[in-house]
Amino acid sequence: MQGEIFRHRHRVTYAECTVGNHIYYARYLDLLEAARGELFRAAGVPLLKLQEAGIIFPVVECHMEYKAPARYDDELVIEVRLTELGRIRLGFSYRVLRGETLLVRGMTQHVCTTLDEKPQRLPPECVEVLGRYLNSAEGER
What we know:
- The chain has a single domain (6-133), classed as Hotdog Thioesterase (Thiol Ester Dehydrase, Chain A), CATH 3.10.129.
- It is 21% helix and 35% strand.
- It has three helices and seven strands, in the order βααββββββα.
- Strands 1-4-5-6-3 form a five-stranded antiparallel β-sheet. A two-stranded antiparallel ribbon has the order 2-7.
- The mean pLDDT is 94.
């Protein structure tokens, strides 16, 4: 099953770059976080609303594969695919692109918890609206 791919645009800021004028490797996690937050917002369940209801999604695993550098003022597109939508687990895969050039490929795994980090089921409204992004036959990392 092929779900929708969410795309988030980002222009690289000077603060994200090293002296060598490329994004510092760990800053890509910030870009993925921003894109994932915008996916939730576009789906109609902003993360702030969920947090106010006592629900958070801590990262329990992540993987990044760096292919080419992004530089100051580059316009990037971060593609987000939902790869797992379980009872308490969410999985996402990402591609960071500059035009047609793949810069970074990544994935994150999350669990749904209360604010005091007790696992809990995903709210039904999340499952319903996020389902359109589910790529259950996700073969790429």
